[in-house]
Amino acid sequence: MPIDNDIALRPRFKLELSRNNQSILEDFEVLKSKQSDFIVTRLDNHVFIKFPKERQHFWSPQLHLEIDEIDNNSSLLHGLFGPNPTVWTMFMFFHFIVAGLFIAFGIWAYTNSSLDKSYAIQVSLMLLMVIIWVVLYFAGSIGKASSKNEMRALHDFMNRVIEIEKAPQS
Fold first, then answer.
1. Does the reported pTM lie above 0.90?
2. Which regions span the lipid bilayer (predicted)?
3. Of 29, 33, 53, 62, which is most buried by a Cβ count within 10 Å?
4. CATH H superfamily, domain 12-84
């Protein structure tokens, strides 16, 4: 599990399981009502695992699993760790705004340069956008780092469910 990857803000992983995807999805459904440490939501072949509201904070991660059928006896599990989708959307919106402003200031600087006017302010604003982008990146990295223990807890819970599905049927 690439939680320690410094570049990926939303770590992903893939596992091949030796059981039908429907039986694994049913195990998640069964465990949903038997425990209260996590909120488990299932939609088709997607499972979302997150912490209850009282244990969540701004950077609380959630685990999105997609369990696809390979054949009758095996399935492929795709996992994605990430913050709450609302937080992620806001974070990406800020990145988009910073990139848009950087481009706009670049066009403004080019226009002033073409007109033989001073463009120092525009270049300074472009540098400010680069600094803001770096700050946003490190804020995301710090948020991910502060959530590593929670990510491990989500991953361990997922592994417990998979271990249940790996247990011999009697």
1. no
2. 87-107, 119-139
3. 62
4. Kinase associated domain 1, KA1 (3.30.310.80)
